[in-house]
Each structure stands twice: as C-alpha cells, then as structure tokens.
Amino acid sequence: MNPKCDIALIGLAVMGQNLVLNMSDHGYRVAVYNRTVSKVDQFLNSSAKGKNNICGTYSIEELVNSLTSPRKIVLMVKAGEVVDNFINLLLPHLDEGDLIIDGGNSLFSDTTRRVEELASQGILFIGTGVSGGEEGARNGPSIMPGGNSEAWPLVKEIFQAISAKVDDGTPCCDWVGDGGSGHYVKMVHNGIEYGDLQMISEAYDLLYSGLKLNHDEMYTIFDEWNRGELDSYLIEITRDIMGYKEEDGKPLLTKILDRAGQKGSGKWTGINSLELGVPVTLISEAVYARSLSSLKEERLEASKILAGVERVVDGNREEIIEDLRQALYASKIVSYAQGYMLLREAAQEYNWHLNYGSIAQMWREGCIIRSVFLEKIKEAYEANSGLKNLLLDDFFASALKESQGGWRRTVGRAVAAGIPMPAISAALAFYDGYRSATLPANLIQAQRDYFGAHTYERTDRPAGQFFHTNWTGEGGDVASTTYEV
Ligand code: 2AM
C-alpha cells in the first residue's frame, strides 16, 4: 500500500495543478481530485508525469482516506456555492481537527461564515489568498492565510515552503488573522492592482496620445522607470508590452480593443470601502474607469457629438515625462495609503489583529503588485506599528513633498488636453483634501440644516453639541431627528 499523503488538493484547473506541482517539488506527498475525474488522469499523464509523490484519487472518499491525520484539504475551485458544495461533500468523511483550506478567490464574508460554521462542527477552516497567477502558483506565490488560528501550525511549514521569498529568504506568507481576513487582504491586494493598472494606463495615454511617442520610445521610458522608485512587476510587464510586435512589425497593443474586463474583486473593494466609510477613491475610480471603457459603442457615438480639445501636450518633453513619473509615484503612494486605511478600518470593524508590515512583506514578492516600494511600506509599519496613515510616515510625506510639483503639473496638462486621468487626479484631490485643516463641509452642513433641519456643530462651541437654525424664518425651530431628506 502507498504511504499516506501530507495534503490533498481538489480542483485541477491551472492554478490548482501548479500548486500541486509546487508542493511536490518541495517534497510533499499530495493527493489530487477533480469533479471531472478524467482531469485527474490527464494531469497525472502530463505535467505530473513521473512525479511519484502526486497521487490521483477518483472519489471524495478515496481522497479523504489517502491522507494522514489531521487531514489537510485544499480547495482550488470556483468561488461561491461550489466551495460550500465541496465542504458538504467532505464533511461526512472528516474527523474532528481536520482542516479545509479554501485557496480560491472567495468573498471574505463567505469565509468568515465558513470558519464559524465549521468550527461549530469541530472542523478547522482557512481561507487564503493566493496571488501571482499561474506562474506564481508554480514557482512561489504570495499566500495570505486567515481563519481558524488553530489551523495555522498544521500548514505553516508547507505554505511557507511553497511561497515566494524576499531576498533575505523571508517567505511571502504569514498568518493574517481570524475569520475572512486572509481573503480580505487578498481582496484589497486585487483592488490595489486595479489602481496600479489604471494609473499606468493613464500615464501611457499621456505619453501616447498627448506626447505622440511611439512604442519604442515608451519602451525606453518604462524601462527607465523600472530602474527607480517605480521598480515593480507591473511597470516591467508594461515595458515588455510596449516592445511586443506582431509579425507585421506593428505593436500588438495598438490592435487590442480598449474595453477592460473585470472579475469583481475591485468592485468588492469599492463596495466594502463605501460600507466602512473609508475614502478609497483611487481604486473605486479604477473600477469605474473599466466600466466606462466597456461602453465602447456609446463612446464612439459620443466622440462624434461631444466637443473637446485637441489631445496635444506641448512643452519640454523630458520635463513632461519626469513630471509624469512623479505623478505616478505620488498617486501610487496615495493608493496604497488608501488601501491601508481600509485595512485598518476593517480590522476595527471585524475585530482582526492585522500586522500591516507583514502584509506589505507578503505582497513584496510573488504577487502581481510586487514592487520595491512595498519594502518602504514594511519599514514604515515596522518603525511605527500604530502609524495612523502611511502618508504621515516621514519617508512618504517627504516623497510626496518632492513629487507634488510634477504631479500637479501633470494633472493640469491632462485636464488642458482633455486626457482623462481619473485615478491620478482622484489621488491628488484626496491628497489635497486629507492635508486640509478645513474643508467646505461646513457649507454642506448648513445646506442640510437649511432644507432638512439636520443640525450642525459649531466651531465656537464644543464638538458634539448640535444646533439648528431657522434659516428662512418660516420653517420653525424643530430639528430633524426622525427623517432624512
Ligand atoms: P471541473 O474541471 O470539473 O470543471 C476551476 O474551475 C475548478 O473548479 C475546476 O477544478 C472545476 O472543475 C471546478 N468547478 C467549477 N464549477 C464546479 C462545480 N459546479 N462543481 C464542482 N466543481 C466545479
């Protein structure tokens, strides 16, 4: 009889297969199963061929029986009810103390629910973000596990072995926290990714349609940017995309339809930020920008009707490009600061103890938003774990001071040339709002009190005392407490 397996994985799509191969490379014995069981043999006869520590199983029962105790079973299946279905199929075969791990892109609130439901039945549950795409899964992803903390010692060694590592060997995988916090951190990661993609695309728009640079010139610019503060996976692939030409010698990028797809994690981040009341403006703008891009036909019509200006950016080319680099860098700082504001509020709201430096470390390598920049975020939180806002850290505050000139000039140029920069300009508006000791919200309060008797606080009285004024002399003096206008 074959020795029992260390861990099992259900769901042999590419991510699942690659995680299995990765675990096998690290010496773990892995049992595999898939709903369409023919894919088990297909896998064993292709990329898993010759790897005798990968064991095919053909039923849930066989899978469960092939494991050492406590059993560890990873689900890499479609998010949503498919995860619940597999949990229900597994439950009758499991013993107390066994562990189910959901490595898919589940909504964090589903994960919180599953952790609680399974805990009441004596089963451990982890919901983990896995980022880095197919390549990451194969060679070292960023792994963000959260859930039942008793489960962490059972998989810590395996997860940290297969994860990406930073230069000093630290794994890009650590315990995130209780409930759905692992999937939450992955959701924010994906939201930040939306923001990064949008900002870079806005920079490209200014270079291409504003400055009329060709793709070789843009290749050189992104290559240079990738050597400095912006050094990151996404700038690197943008450079390579600029250099990619088809057989006819034309850049492939010019032939790709300008209609962006989305799978939902940016939207989830935006929705959650509205629910928690955190101004995560850049990511939300990035989601809306994709929605606007998808209105291709309507935009084509509108482009013939609505007046604009000629999309030309004049001036010293080198200065304009350096300003743009500064705008990108400053906006990126704001975007990550907003992402961390959301994490902080979520930790409060959902009762999680998040380690912000460790989250930056998990994103440092392996995942799509990996960058040199994350090292600085890690350092900021290591220096001050109670840091209220990343923008207030010395390093980031002075980086913004230095780049704000270029940032403002860039937004000004884009506005003047009719080039939309929703993310970069939203970041600047946020920055200017956040650093304002006073905002025009006093007028909003006056208006609300005028039309709806919603009351206001006064600067010349202690906060927490509410006043109502009879603005017209006609409406009466009764403040609104029971209705909202
Ligand atoms: P399949 O190969 O049988 O389609 C990613 O799509 C993974 O989720 C695949 O392993 C896929 O199994 C699985 N999956 C998708 N929908 C499923 C469902 N309704 N029931 C079970 N597995 C499903």
Structure in words:
This protein is α/β, with parallel strands linked by helices and 485 residues long. The protein has 19 helices and seven strands. The chain is globular, with a radius of gyration of 26 Å. The model has no long low-confidence stretch (mean pLDDT 96). The structure holds adenosine-2'-monophosphate. Adenosine-2'-monophosphate binds next to loops.
Largest sheet properties:
7 strands, mixed
Strand order of the largest sheet: 3-2-1-4-5-6-7
Alpha-carbon Rg, integer? 26 Å
Q: Which shape, going by the Cα principal axes?
A: globular
Low-confidence runs of at least 5 consecutive residues: none
Helical content (DSSP H or I, runs of 4+): 40-55%
Identify the bound ligands: adenosine-2'-monophosphate
- Percentage of β-strand residues: 5-15%
What is the N-to-C succession of helices and strands?
Answer: EHEHEHEHEHEHEHHHHHHHHHHHHH
DSSP summary, beta strand count: 7
The span between the termini is 73 Å
Average pLDDT, rounded to a whole number, is: 96
Going by helix content, strand content and strand pairing, the class is alpha/beta
Number of helices: 19
For this entry, give a set of tags.
single chain; about 475 residues; alpha/beta; seven-stranded mixed sheet; 19 helices
Write the layout of secondary structure elements.
Blueprint: E1 7-10, H1 14-25, E2 30-33, H2 38-44, E3 54-56, H3 60-65, E4 72-75, H4 81-90, E5 99-102, H5 108-119, E6 124-131, H6 133-139, E7 142-147, H7 152-162, H8 181-210, H9 215-225, H10 233-243, H11 265-276, H12 281-293, H13 296-305, H14 317-350, H15 356-362, H16 373-383, H17 394-416, H18 422-434, H19 441-452
Parallel strand pairs: 1-2, 1-4, 2-3, 4-5, 5-6
Antiparallel strand pairs: 6-7
The chain binds adenosine-2'-monophosphate.
